[in-house]
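Lab notebook, bench 4. Still working through the backlog of constructs that have no structural model yet. Next entry is a single chain of 142 residues. Request: give me the structure tokens for it.
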Amino acid sequence: MSTPPPIVYKTVHQIRFAQLDPYQHMGTEHYGGYFVEHRMIGLRENLGWDLKTLGTLPFEVWIKRMEIDFLRPVVGDQVITITSFVREFRGSESHIELSMADSSGKNVSRCMMIVACVDKKTMRPMDWQPDVMAMFFEKPKD
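Model written out:
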């Protein structure tokens, strides 16, 4: 049995003046913020996991690692589109692929994000539960 296709999250953002360096490029420290914000918007819009709901879940999600590739400069007032999906789950880790594209669809940055699932009671990593993992993939057709 094959894994169903992942659900792709998509958000659109406009680069703000306060994020620019002296060359009018977005500072490197802001890329990670956009990728994290994108995922949080996606969880809220696709799963209903707003901040209040996240507080009621029996687990927490922690970003364990982010690897960002900077492909092309991003400049002030530029509109970017970020897309992402869960590539796979490995025990307590979810491996998420993200891409940031300009208005023509060219990638300007890529990111691999590893998110850990942590048991709230023990504060130790726990395996992602099958019912939660299923929420990140298209529902199989009968």
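Notes after review: The helical segments are 29-47, 51-56, 130-134. The chain is about 20% helix and 35% strand. Flag for follow-up if needed.
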